[in-house]
Amino acid sequence: MPTASQRAQAKIRQLAMTKGLKVKVGKLQGPREQGEMTPDSFLATSYGLPRSKNQNRAGGMNALKKVTWEIFKAAGLNTQGLPQGWCWNGGEGALKSEQLSHLAHLIEQLPDDVYALGVTPIGAQAYWHERATPEQLDNLEQVLKALVMDSF
């Protein structure tokens, strides 16, 4: 029998999939934190939102030029331009100051248990522990939509 937390997790995942979010579990390597020689890798759950095919087609080569970046809520070494408590795991220096300001605003809207965000030309992902209410899932969905629709 599933535990109460497993049932709650299944409900959140099911609700996320009805909203069009892609739920994946896979290996994730975190950033190198202060005092570490090599970063840890672990199994992580991500909720992702793909960029629309029309958005990539309309942008042509510009769509392919979108940057790839990943940030973590951790005491990492590369923190330039990010809110306190967040660090780069890749793509540092790729975003302009207005994009970093917009990203900081989006981070404030995330559920507390989100510990990483990533953006590629294909889509955006948020990694979290899935301890959320449906309202917090709505906030996560809005952040992912902003990441795929805005100029990130």
What would you note in describing this structure?
With 152 residues, the chain is α+β, with helices and mostly antiparallel strands. The protein is built from 5 helices and 6 strands; from the N terminus they run αββααββαββα. The protein has helices at 4-18, 53-59, 61-64, 97-109, 134-149, and strands spanning 22-29, 41-50, 69-73, 86-90, 114-119, 123-128. Strands 1-2-6-5-3-4 form a 6-stranded antiparallel sheet. Strand 5 (114-119) and strand 6 (123-128) form a beta hairpin. Helix 4 (97-109) packs antiparallel against helix 5 (134-149). The longest helix is centred in the last third of the chain and has 16 residues, at 134-149. The protein is globular.
Biggest sheet: strands side by side, in what order? 1-2-6-5-3-4
- Rg to the nearest angstrom? 16 Å
Write the element-wise H/E pattern from the N-terminal end onward.
HEEHHEEHEEH
The count of β-strands is 6
The averaged pLDDT comes out at: 88
Structural class: alpha+beta
**Distance, first to last CA:** 42 Å
* Annotation field: number of helices: 5
Low-confidence stretches: 56-61
Proportion of strand residues: 25-35%
Report helical residue fraction: 25-40%
User: Major sheet, described briefly?
Assistant: 6 strands, antiparallel
Q: In one word, what is the shape?
A: globular
